[in-house]
Amino acid sequence: MTADKLQVGDHAFQSRLIVGTGKYKDLDATKQALKASGAEMVTVAVRRLDLQAPGGDNLVSYLQKEGFTLLPNTAGCYTADDAVRTCRLARELGMSGLVKVEVLGDERTLFPDVVQTLEAAKTLVDEGFTVLPYTTDDPITAKKLADIGCAAVMPLAAPIGSGLGVRNPYNIELIRNAVSVPVIVDAGVGTASDAAVAMELGCDGVLMNTAIAGAQDPTRMARAMRLAVEAGRDAFLAGRIPRKLYATASSPLEGVIGSTR
After folding, report:
1. Is position 25 annotated as part of the catalytic site?
2. 7 Cβ contact partners less than 8 Å away, ≥ 6 residues apart
3. Which of 67, 71, 14, 76 is nearest to 43 (CA)?
4. How confident is the model at residue 59 (pLDDT cuts 50, 70, 90)?
5. pLDDT tens digit string along 143-170?
6. Strand pairing of 11-13 and 6-8?
7. What angle do CA 233, 32, 39 make, to 5 degrees?
8. Are 190 and 156 in contact (CB under 8 A)?
9. DSSP assignments along the chain, one per residue
10. Residues 6 or more apart whose Cβ sits within 8 Å of residue 16
11. Which position among 5, 100, 122, 144 bears the catalytic label?
């Protein structure tokens, strides 16, 4: 399994679970959940960072000290221009050019505005960023984003924070077959089985925040998500048996004494 790494641009990760850092009750709870998740890449909302906090209480300082790869995101942006400015700010703050582009189109559903997302992604790719765009589960849009030069595509499983799981597995599979870059399910995961399903579909990774931070025991849920992602990846690589309408005996009757078959 050591050779089975998630490759995103020039970055390689052993863990295929990417986690967010928002919505925890405090920094200690964040630290415990991150450790239990086994994640190597964590996403931070640039527009919500408290850059004035003292070193020990500064989330970014902690993440950098612990060796996490930061994935600054553009949460809260509703235009391509805002998203591009936010990514440039992250780079000015010393973060890498690895960015999650999230351009929302509606405050209630938090669905992405695909037109603005495509525009922002193109600008950022042209400026040398490694772009991971949050998008709908539309294979056409995913293909356009990959063709622009995005290092991965991140279709939603369901609306952000809904916990509904993978609502349209057919489209996720279509996206996986349509692009050659990694497919990372982003948004909508509610529990460990949802993460396993996404990985069994052939996704390269899963990104989540609310499912862990909003759980009654975030640390335990983080551990469950880590194991689910690993199990789902193993199941996909192992190759499941085909679905059949009727039973197939685990112990065939051929060769059994007295059998006429």
Report:
1. no
2. 13, 182
3. 71
4. confident
5. 999 999 999 999 999 999 999 999 999 9
6. antiparallel
7. 30
8. no
9. -TT--EEETTEEES--EEEE--S-SSHHHHHHHHHHHT-SEEEEEGGG--TTS-GGG-HHHHHHHTTPEEEEE-TTB-SHHHHHHHHHHHHHTT--SEEEE-BBS-TTT--B-HHHHHHHHHHHHHTT-EEEEEE-S-HHHHHHHHHHT-S-BEE-SSSTT-----S-HHHHHHHHHH-SS-BEEES---SHHHHHHHHHTT-SEEEESHHHHTSSSHHHHHHHHHHHHHHHHHHHHH-PPPP-SS---SS--TT-TT---
10. 6, 199, 204, 205, 206, 229, 230, 233
11. 100
Confidence of residue 56 (pLDDT cuts 50, 70, 90): very low
Comparing 11-15, 109-113, 139-143, 252-256, which segment has the lowest mean pLDDT?
252-256
Amino acid residing at 235: A
Residue showing tokens 């193993």 = 234
What does the block give as tokens for 101? 């582009």
Q: Do you know the residue count of the chain? A: 261
Look up residue 236 and give its two tokens.
């996909």
